[in-house]
Amino acid sequence: MADGTRTLLVGDGPLAAGLHDGLVHRGHVVAQVVPVGADGGTDIGAGIDAGIGAGVSLIGPPDLVVHVPQVPAGPVALVDQTTQQWVEACEAPMAEAFAVARACRPHLSDGARLVWVLPTVAMGGAAGYVGSAAASEGIRALAKSAARQWGPDGLTTAVLAVAPELAFPPDTGAGARTSAATTLTGPALGGPGDAFGDIAPLLDLLADPAARFMTGATLVADGGVWMAP
Amino acid sequence: MSPDLAPGDQLLEGRVVLVTGGASGLGLGMATAMAAHGAAVVLACRRPETGEPAAVQLREAGHDVRCVRCDVASADDLRAAVEATVTAHGRLDCMVHNAIAPTLGPTRIQDVAQDHWDAMMATAIRATFEGARAAHPHLREAGGSMILMTSAAGMEGSASLPVYAMVKAAQRTLAKGLAAEWGADGIRVNCIAPVALTPAMERAYGENPVLHERLLERTPLGRIGDPLDDVGPVAVFLASEMARFITGQTLCVDGGGFLGL
Asked: ipTM score here?
């Protein structure tokens, strides 16, 4: 897409940082919003409105909104989790995604797109990340529902599914273990890629008007691990 | 039990099943089918005034069925229902989590109320977590299984029910993750994605008069399913030894309405 794409990036952590830098590098005007209450809140209401509003006041009505939901710090088996850990891993990211959709909707006009960047465990599940994977799949369904509701207004959505190595904290090794559980042969392209050089360009592609007839779909960019269906 | 069974054999003889939301609709249909296949069934019901008559009716038909009060939004209630089942029958072979809060009518994303969100999360997502934790040691001891209810809405999204679509999608991947975690314990976890004529579906027809016709148009088998005769046998199958090598899967029981898997 041409320089000057107004992008609202909602999220925190290494993946969001890499996407931020990659989008800026490609000429996007980016406002990054770090969700308040990303510690396990389940508010779908006004909690995120102020951040979205502040971002919009900086860059104007966004052409592209990108949400990178929070992920847990490390793997924990479901039966070993406390209720609070479960809420933080599963319910809070879903609430955050829903809140982002609601809060940004009034600022989106014909041609704008909302994209969620999620780990591929959304589709396949993951031991140790049962709640996080479930939340990701729930958010994928939200992308589809929003596409169906907002399509008549010229708004589109998408999911960009990335390797777990990019989404989960790298120091735990959990992403690599999850990918290894998905494939017998490893990534076809040799690795999980990186946010700056491999994923941000795809967000740029999704923001391009040439992609306007694609909505509600999931684009998998994990180096060739998840290929189903 | 050997999977080499003859027609008419009781697939769940000696098994114990707990069904949440078992007082009516899909829950009662599955519970009835499982009881008819020899299972001792406990109906976990938020309103015993509807669950108990259902249990009485099934007992009068010769089945081993009882009702316990359980609001699945309460972790304490879920734990108590599991413990009551094990106390009564000595084991738990299958937990079916079917209960969910009412879906309301068509709702725009921007109009969803916090209390609706909270109710859907509590009954579909939190209850799966709390129910799974409570049932796990007993399912492991029995080499049992868990069945979650999902929906095509969770796989293709829904223009009218966005929160329902989210929680049903989440439950489906939750089943996959649990299947991965619990496989080593000998526990299977699967999903059923049904379309059946239930009180909830009848309410949906009332809210959306063209829904029935639209569903029929997309259903190759040309009718809406029956909770007992169409969905029930699939629950029996998944809980039985016949399905011993199936886990993490979703079976669409919808007459072919959703062909996207």
From this structure: 0.95
